[in-house]
Amino acid sequence: MGASSSTEQVSPERREAESLAASTGALTVLEKSFSNLSDPQTQTIPISSLKECFELSIDYQSCEASFKPENFPGLLNHLNHSIVEQFFSAEENGLNWIAFLNGYTKCCGRMTTSDSLNNLLRVFGSTTTKSGATTGLQIDSSDGDCKINGHLLPADLLMLLWMCWAMYWDSRNSKGGVKFDLVDVNNLVLSAVSSCGDGGSELNVWDDSLLGSDIQLPIGKLHVWVLKTVPNLPECLVQFVYSRLSKFAPQQEKMEASSSSTNDNHSNSESHTYLLTPGKAWSISLTLRSTMHEEILKTCFAHHDEVKENLLYRASLHGKGLNRFWSNVEGYNGPILLLISATSEDHSWTIGALTHQAYENKDTFYGTSGSLYAISPVFDQFTSSGKEKNFVYSHLHVAGYEAYPKPVGIGFGGSNGNERIFMDEDFSKLIVRHHAYDKTYHPGSLFPNQGYLPTEAQVLDVEVWGLGGKKVKEAQNSFLKREQLFTEQRRKIDLKTFTNWEDSPEKMMMDMVSNPSAVQREKR
Q: Which long-range contacts (CB under 8 A, 24 or more apart) does 366-372 make?
């Protein structure tokens, strides 16, 4: 097997292969999976067994998106062949321990995001070719270094994203039973078209025919777009390969990145009614890491009850307005994602803001970090620029007189009175200003055709999602229970503290108003 005894002489080649595999945190899993996949006599893994290990055939029941390439289901049938051919070099009798480790490291080892993206494109190009479809990818591996040129069409990119979604879904559904749906990632495709296509910024993104157009997306520009917009996309291939090998490692020790998977039987169709649909949640997750990454993916993979746990506020459910918002968000001391659906000039769009701290009632900006999102119809992320720290503004009415009243509402970026995003206290009007007003977040359009002048839009719905995890939510529940208890205690009236009604000043005043000429006898 792959593990070596203390008396066995280990070759430098093997020691190096094991060292590289250990750096990924998967050496124990690889040893166990090799033991279960290999032939006991030859101590090698048959190529047929390895291809069977990576076999992925999915019959999806539904699709969020309106545009569906016809050849996508057949694409996944060739994914296993492409993975084995691209990374695992076998001899005639199969794959030995060193070749197995080298293949895994070649695919899932520690490397730059750019190299990992090249691996993903190689697999996609090979899979597309094997399925009988054509692609504009040009892959040259003749001199040992893989060089990828050419282009992808919008439909090609959509299939690449769906292939990544299928691999990611499979890696989190290791026990089976979760219904597979194709999510709507048209916002990602339109984002790439706007960034990479010729004249992309002038295209009409409201036109559905763009997804099936022949606009070429050069690989060089596509690389830049992935690294800037969805840097976690290549991880889908890494997690898929690791999770499939883990199935052949009983009682395996899983890597931290793959530790939290949801395997219960459910349908995520319930979550399609939220602003944060599975497709939008996955899009945002491709920009995040750590706890926030896992929490937002509950919208895609968790039960409906678990999804609702992270939903702190929804205007259409809890009522519109800053007071209703505050009563549901107060006390949540963790990362918060706010989504706003709005309409202007007969077009609807969705934007978002991610803050890494709790909301506070202040008449000044506050916060330590955050990001703005253009979510639909075109996806984009605007992280902190580091120039200013006007991340969040959330101000309620204050009791008493204010000589210089501050705006009442929620804002992000910019300055008081010139916020980049500002929603009024009734959650009915939204104002979005040009990025020139803002030095806190990176520049860019939050919705298509955004001009220099401020845009006033009508708010359709608002959602707030907590991404701090279970402990943060439990702490907020305890806080809200205490506040409710204090409120009930303040409302209670202790009748013993009041004097007799006949002797009360209130009765005397009422008697005087009803009959002012009556003689009031003074008691002595």
A: 366/391, 366/392, 366/393, 367/391, 367/392, 370/412, 370/441, 371/287, 371/441, 372/412, 372/413, 372/420, 372/421, 372/441, 372/446
